[in-house]
Known about the structure:
Layout: E1 17-24, H1 29-44, E2 46-53, E3 62-71, E4 87-90, H2 96-99, E5 109-114, H3 119-126, E6 131-136, H4 138-145, H5 150-161, H6 165-175, H7 180-192, E7 195-199, E8 250-251, H8 261-265, E9 272-275, E10 278-282, H9 292-296, E11 299-300, E12 303-304, E13 306-307
Parallel strand pairs: 1-4, 4-5, 5-6
Antiparallel strand pairs: 1-3, 2-3, 6-7, 8-13, 9-10, 11-12
Helix pairs in contact: 1-5, 4-7, 5-7, 6-7
Amino acid sequence: MVAASYRLPVKDELGFCNVFLSALGGDGANMAGKLLFKIGCKMFGLDGGFDARYGSEKKGTATDVSVRFCEVGTPVRQSGPTRRPNYLVVFHDDLITPLDLGRGLHDGAVCIVNTIQPPSEIRKLLRLHSGKIICLDATKIAVQTRSRLNMPLVGVLCHEIGFPDEQITKVIADQWPKAAEANLAAYAAAIEHLETETFDADDRFPLTEPTSIYGPIGWRNMLNGGTIDAIKFTTINRDNRIAGRGHVPKFDAAACNSCGICLTVCSDPGGLLWRQGRMEGIDPLFCKGCMRCVEVCPETKKGKALTTDYA
Ligand code: SF4
Ligand code: SF4
C-alpha cells in the first residue's frame, strides 16, 4: 500500500534525496540499503536508484551502498555511488577518517554514526560544515537484542527520513519473521538510545566538493570494445585490512572446547586464529568486532570462551 501523503524531507538540485551507507563487508549494509529502497518505492511511492560496491566480505573490505530517492516523474539518469549524500550512515566510526566520509556532504546533512563518542567529536572527525549528527552504540544494541548491526542503523535512518515507525516495523517483521522479535527490539532500542546534536554552519569546516579515487569512467577513457583499463582502475591497493579496529571479543582459552561453532558465523574467518584444529584467539587485524561469535559460543563448565563487555 502506497502512502500518498509522504514527501521527501530534502532534495538536491536534481530532485534526489541521497543516502550513503559506509560499512565493512559482512555488516549487512547491502541488505539494509535494499530494504530501505524497497520500503521507499513500494510503500511510499518513490522512484530512484540503488548502487552497492563491495569486495570480499571475508577480508572485511570497506563497502558502500547508495540509495537515491526521488518523486515519480523525476528523470533518473545517474548510477553509481552517491558522491554528495544528504544522509550518511557510518557503521563504524573509525571508517570516517581513512575513507574521508565527510567529503561532499550537503549543507545540513544528517549523519547517523555507530559510535560511543558524542556528536561533537564525530563532527570534528567528519569536519561537518552544518547538519545533524546522531550517535548510537549500534554494536551494543545488536549484541544485546541478538539482532544485527544493520538493524538499529537502518531503523534510525528510516525514522529520520520520515517513514512512519509503525509501517517500518511491520515491513521488518514480515521480511524476517523468525528474527522479528530481535529486530524489532533492536529498532526500538536504537530510537530510544540516541544522542543527537544539530550544528550550525562553521567556517572551520567548509563545504567540500566530492572527489573520486579513480575519476570518472566513461567512453573517453574506455579501451576498445568497452573494456576498462585494469591497470589504471585496479583496486588491488585498497586497504582490505581496514577492519582491524581493536574492538574484538575477549577469548578465554581455558573455556574453549574448539567446537568450531564460531567459525560458522564469522564473516571474516581470518579473525579467528586456529592452529592444528584448536582455536587460539582473535586476530585484531581481521576481526571487525561484529560479536556474532560471542552469541553462538557455547557455555562450557568453565564458562564461555568468547565474551564481550556488552553481553
Ligand atoms: S565457539 Fe567458543 S568454544 Fe567453540 S571453538 Fe569457538 S571459541 Fe571455542
Ligand atoms: S571473530 Fe567474532 S567478532 Fe570478529 S569478525 Fe569474526 S564473528 Fe565477528
